[in-house]
Amino acid sequence: MTQSARGSVPPSIYTPIWGGLNAALVLSCIRSHGSEEAEAVEHELGKRLTAFRLHESGLRGTGSVLQSCANLQVASDRRQGRPVFSGAHEGAVWVVYPGAHWLSHAPQPGATMPTVIEPALQAAHYQSRHGEIARRLGGGDVRFVLTHSLAEGDPCDAGYFASEVTGGVEGAEVSRSKPAWLVDMTRVLDDPAVFEPASTGRDGGTLSHEVGLRIQVLCERMGPPGGSLLVEHALRILLAGYREWLPGALDQPVVRTPDDAATLYARFWETAGAQVVVSRGIRPVVSLRLADLWPDTGTFPPLVSQAIVRAWSASLSHLDFNLRCWIASPPEEDQERFVVEFDAGGPGT
Amino acid sequence: MGLCSALVFSCLRFHGQSTIAELERRSIRRHQGKHFIEGIRKLGLESEHNDVLRCAKYHYFSNTMGGLPMDYVEETPTKVWIRYLAPYWMGDSPIEPSAGPAVLGSAFGRAPYFGWHANNGALLGNPRLVFVHTQSLCDGDPWDAGYFTMADHDLPAGEGYWRRVGEWGPRFFPEQAPSVPHGDWPPERRSKALRSYAIDFTASRLATLPELVGLQAAERVVEHAFTVAMSARHEAFVPKRPDGAPWGLADAAAAVADFLTMTGDHVDVESADGGRRWFIHQSAFRWWRSESQRLPDIDASIARAWTRVLRIRLPEVRCRVDSVGDHGARWCIEGGVA
């Protein structure tokens, strides 16, 4: 038996896994429930995420209220590995997002997934995060104005925190007015600070944390059966898409035996900082606690665990045709453990 | 292939799931009409024992040539499996795995097989040939798969397709698969084949889109797809100059010329008005070569997308395109108000 929590995970591995799963959950929701429902999820998720981050930071910013809003938002974006530029101009504090969209995390940067995003969903993303920061830090005096949106054909997402702005909802509004200073994006693109790497692992507010919160919101809005179906679909698609990339990225390039499969599965969860226990044997067993992994998100319905394992089992067929896995009973002394067993009796899961 | 996928995503955003399924079915059928019978001959498959083997090998050969990873398993001489493994064109490309297919509905997953495989029997004069579709990535299966076999009765032309969930078929052993004709091709020839594959599929979509949604709506879909896909990859399409100097119109012209030559076409770049205007002369556009003619309005929407993308580096620039004859074009890069 081995127990482990691997050390730091490079952003080049962590971000495609957890950012990719986050994107897959958004896309699955659009597929099954339409863009409006995805928008509602984004509103709820963003507010919770922002509340968590502000609580964690103790509502502390630096400088003026506007600057504090921007600083907190930039810190949050950097934690998620998102390139971001920030700068003050004519009484407003701007945040500009060149390159990777919040929905485009993948092993190769610049995926085309943002093409599918409706402007309202894009706006919901910013209203619930940036707008929520403005509302909480600035009361009724500060708003976030979204001026640029990749979803509407702009070359980037961008907007500004400002006071004395009227209109909009909940601390945010959308404006199509383009400021002169941002007409030339070279200043943004050439700032080396824009592309700082993400933090990874167990930090609150990271992409894996967002995945946990998103699953929670989906299960609340659609009920555990509906939410877990989306989780299963998203994970199935992600693992299928990553079938060639993931084993190498997780340092298990050959997956032929149940032992190999158990190792790969364990390493997947370790990227999010999970404490994983692996028992080797003819039928190796891997156990962890989802509640430890996503501690502030509440209890996960059992259907979510089952969905995760069904998706994993289906994807193992990619690596070796007969590999499969299923949920095993947790040990009596720790009924909250999420225990998965592996063998080579498939496929057809 | 990223642009090809972006067209589907963009169309989904503006027109919904049923439209992208129909776009896929029609553009695949269009592609089949241009390439299938000729491909059978080129791949030397006329001498195969039956249409089941002929079709399974055709799809295995042609798609692996285009970079898609595939399995091929002869369960019997009249039941032959093919599996399309991820990552494939849905999402980003066969070499760029992504979560993109998560947004595609079940009907879209069936559409390419309705479009192409169901029609093989009609083109081969075999009304009993059928493709049995067993796994669909869009439904959460680990791959797209199925087998060609013979029905026990004649099927209506173009309807040789059955959906049957639950069969998995035998395991694939690479050493038992037929040798692919491109196995010993030099890298340059492989690269050309990959390029042709991507271009022809993109062209089929570009040509089908206006037929399905009308020209004006198609322009909006194309402009959005190209703008977002190229903006997301701005480091490749409009890279920083090695010397760090600001972009000029010459850099913008070079970027568009690079894009146009990605298809393997030759272009001539010419400056006019003392460098205040640049022309890129294109005698033919590979995208449109397999179609009867260019669609100037679609080209114009691509030019508008380029204007937006070029403005990432050069705020006051405009890209436009004029047709020259049936296949040629003159692209113009000039100053323009942002």
Provide a short characterization of the protein structure:
The complex is a heterodimer of chains A (349) and B (338). Chain A is an alpha+beta fold. Chain A has helices spanning 11-33, 35-57, 65-79, 119-138, 186-189, 207-241, 245-249, 258-270, 290-293, 302-319, and strands spanning 2-4, 85-89, 92-97, 142-148, 157-163, 172-174, 276-279, 285-288, 324-328, 338-343.
Oligomer: heterodimer
Low-confidence stretches of chain B: none
Shape of chain A: elongated
Percent in strands of chain A: 5-15%
Question: How much is the radius of gyration of chain A in Å?
Answer: 21 Å
Mean pLDDT of chain B: 89
Strand order of the largest sheet of chain B: 1-2-4-3-5
Report how far the terminal alpha carbons of chain B are from each other: 30 Å
Average of per-residue pLDDT values of chain A? 83
Order of helices and strands of chain B: HHHEEHHEEEHHHHEEHHEE
Return the structural class of chain B.
Answer: alpha+beta
Radius of gyration of chain B: 22 Å
Largest sheet of chain A: 5 strands, antiparallel
Question: If you had to describe this structure to a student in words, what would you say it looks like?
Answer:
The complex is a heterodimer of chains A (349) and B (338). Chain A is of the alpha+beta class and 349 residues long. Helix content of chain A is 46%, strand content 14%. In chain A, helix 1 crosses helix 6 and helix 3 packs across helix 4. With 338 residues, chain B is α+β, with helices and mostly antiparallel strands. Chain B has eleven helices and nine strands. In chain B, strands 1-2-4-3-5 form a five-stranded mixed beta sheet, with helices on one face. Chain B has a four-stranded antiparallel beta sheet with strand order 6-7-9-8. In chain B, helix 1 runs parallel beside helix 6 and helix 1 packs across helix 7. The longest helix of chain B is centred in the middle third of the chain and has 27 residues. Chain B is elongated and about 70 Å long. Chains A and B meet through helix 1, helix 6 and helix 10 of A and helix 1, helix 7 and helix 8 of B.
